[in-house]
Amino acid sequence: MEAPNLLRLERTVRFGDTDAAGVIQFHQLLRWCHEAYEESLERFGIGAAEIFPRPEWGLEQPAGQKTTPNTTGPALGIALPIVHCSADYRRPLVCGDRLEITLQPRQLDQGSFEVTYSFACGGQTAARGLTRHRAITIADRQGCSLPATISAWLEACQPSTVILANRANPQQA
Question: Which one from 17, 19, 97, 109 is the annotated catalytic residue?
């Protein structure tokens, strides 16, 4: 998939996203950032089960112990927790606003990356967000290198890749 399709998403502000004043509740922006990140990964072919831990119910338990949820890690054995996030609001967003969300991921070092999000409404920047992620092993919670799938996604999202993709297919430039 070409990088522009991985990095541009749309959404509409819904009534449930707003507060009593009729504008988005502050926390919604960070939720939308994470949803955009997940959507970009899915468009690239990285499924949620490969990246995000999920609870497993009904695991075998020794006799006399209750069955409780156990969180199992992604298939990769690596988690990518957010270690920093921020949001800046430039104008109010209200129910019905159509948003274009643009992602700009970049690798920081072997074990971390960040994604900058720009939210535009009516051609104007309405908000910006940032999430910074660190790769850790699930078993011991120690820092490690990024999984190959995430490195490939980051590479596909780089501006040079976008330029090359547009040169290869000029009608989409």
Answer: 19
